[in-house]
Specification:
Layout lengths: L1 E5 L2 E17 L2 E10 L1 H10 L5 E7 L2 E5 L8 E5 L1 E2 L6 E5 L1 H6 L7 E7 L11 E7 L3
Antiparallel strand pairs: 1-2, 2-3, 2-9, 3-8, 4-5, 4-6, 5-10, 7-8, 9-10
């Protein structure tokens, strides 16, 4: 985690991991990418919303934003938050097929870029942009 100066503002950059997750249901195998949500973001989300079951990935131009608010008129993907046992670890499963529709390639890491002002219209949350890191 580090603070980065960007033009006239500061951003908090938080790296997190993405792992492969294979699930078998009724004899069918489904492949997902598991994205770990950092605890500092989970604490912020819990302050914004008392009952927290889902997060929303919003697709705006070439950017992907994470929020706990359900906004209208913006394409989004609703993802269930999953807790690892009784640990203080949380993740969401990413459906690679739906991300490919938006021309997003997922690697093994993601950078959460936290900014002070929301870049989603009508959002009361801070801006949390996801930048997926792809190995070359």
């Amino acid at each position: 985690m580090r603070i980065v100066e960007n033009e006239n503002c500061f951003e908090l950059h938080i790296f997190s991991s993405i792992t492969d997750n294979n699930v078998s249901v009724n004899g069918k195998c489904y492949n997902y990418k598991r994205l770990v949500i950092p605890n500092v973001l989970m604490e912020y989300f819990r302050e914004k919303k008392s009952v927290l079951e889902y997060v929303y990935l919003y697709f705006q131009d070439d950017s992907i934003f994470l929020s706990v608010e359900k906004l209208h008129d913006i394409k989004y993907s609703k993802r269930r938050i999953i807790q690892v046992g009784k640990k203080n670890s949380f993740f969401i499963n990413l459906n690679e097929r739906s991300l490919l529709k938006h021309d997003v390639t997922v690697g093994n890491n993601v950078l959460f870029v936290v900014g002070g002002e929301s870049k989603l219209n009508d959002s009361e949350c801070i801006s949390i942009e996801l930048r997926f890191c792809v190995e070359e």
